Amino acid sequence: MSTLLSIENLEVHFPIRRGATFGRTTGYVRAVDGASLEIRRGETLGLVGESGSGKTTLGRAMLRVVEPTGGRITLHLEGGSNVDLRTVDRVELRRLWRHMQLIFQDPYASLNPRMTVRDIIGESLLVHGIAKGAELEERVVEVIRRCGLDAEHLGRYPHAFSGGQRQRISIARALILQPEFIVCDEPISALDVSIQAQILNLLKSLQQELGLTYLFIAHDLAAVAYACDRVAVMYLGQIVEMAETQKLYYTPKHPYTEALMSAIPVPDPDARLKPVLLPGERPDPANPPPGCRFHTRCRYADAKCRTEMPALAPIDDGHLVACHHAGSLTLQGAREQADALATA
Ligand SMILES: Nc1ncnc2c1ncn2[C@@H]1O[C@H](COP(=O)(O)OP(=O)(O)OP(=O)(O)O)[C@@H](O)[C@H]1O
Ligand code: SF4
Ligand SMILES: [Mg+2]
Question: Separation of 185 CA from ligand 3 center, angstroms?
């Protein structure tokens, strides 16, 4: 699989302003702080990590919806040429956004309640001057059907739909410009559990039909196991591990991933792992610890960990880890849990 998009040492530092009128900058929230990963054409790459680790900011920054403050973003075009996404001007960026879309967690907040579904879905065709009139209608009908909704409902407003249907509308809106890459930011976490699988399956079938590539941001590790080909783990603004899904779940090489895996809830008591409890609070991203960012909560930390930041490096084929001791630690993985949950 060829690379579609890669980021290197990406940074998003938000200024902290104090003082009501002058807004003096007193520091920075390092929401993304040297994150590197690459997304392959046609895959679903999962992005996991606890709340506040920077997943949403990273997902937006790689499309430049949020402006990065450092690092590189490279879009690899099919013909073999590359686009440096961080330096393209606004006109070019808007043109490229046709190929890269976002789907959000809360399908109600992200749909304008005063617009009909037809207008919500068709809007970007008008804005980009791609289609209008009968041609626009035809494309809107085609995409709404593809997303499993009835074309007769196009004249209705978002409030007339259930959460799952609203997420289908959001997906249709993202698809209308025929993008290649979609950042799905917790696309199912606001939905009823009974609806979540339907939306996951819709995303999967759309991927197969249309050859889409997804970045799938989620908390639910069972959904990630089901949906993703590979998974990247984020901690305090950095990617600490990235591997093919089964490898990451069964043979994690980073102590933080081990802790995440041990917390997967499973119904069978025999299959449960002893949870790895992380001591202390997540450090403040405005004041991250020196050395390995994870050392304040890592049970394997030593003197080196407290002073030297480990680089994200390959440990074996396609398995990247940022830990000084990745080669020598024996960590517990999720074993049969992921499978059991994926087929549940
Ligand atoms: N616009 C902003 N200005 C200042 N700080 C921000 C801004 N957006 C996010 N942050 C901070 O950046 C950090 C990362 O936030 P982000 O929303 O990217 O995390 P996340 O991993 O998506 O969390 P969650 O799982 O809760 O969605 C947090 O400390 C957050 O408070
Ligand atoms: S580098 Fe050290 S502190 Fe960081 S995860 Fe590895 S063992 Fe733990
Ligand atoms: Mg988020």
Answer: 7
At 325-343, the pLDDT tens digits run: 999 999 988 865 545 455 5
Index of the ligand 2 atom closest to the CA of residue 256: 5
The pTM (predicted TM-score) of the whole model is 0.94
- pLDDT tens digits along 308-323: 999 999 999 899 999 9
Q: If you take atom 6 of ligand 2, which residue's CA is the nearest one?
A: 323
Domain boundaries, the chain: 3-99+179-342
Q: What is the full DSSP assignment across 83-96?
A: EETTTS-HHHHHHH
Residue 59, helix vs strand vs coil: helix
Q: Class assignment of domain 3-99+179-342? A: alpha beta
Whether the CB-CB separation of 341 and 267 falls below 8 Å is answered with no
Give me the residues near ligand 3 (ion), CB cutoff below 5 Å.
55-56
How many angstroms is it from 324 CA to the middle of ligand 2? 6
User: Residue 59 is encoded by which pair of tokens?
Assistant: 């997902």
- 56 CB within 6 A, ligand 1: yes
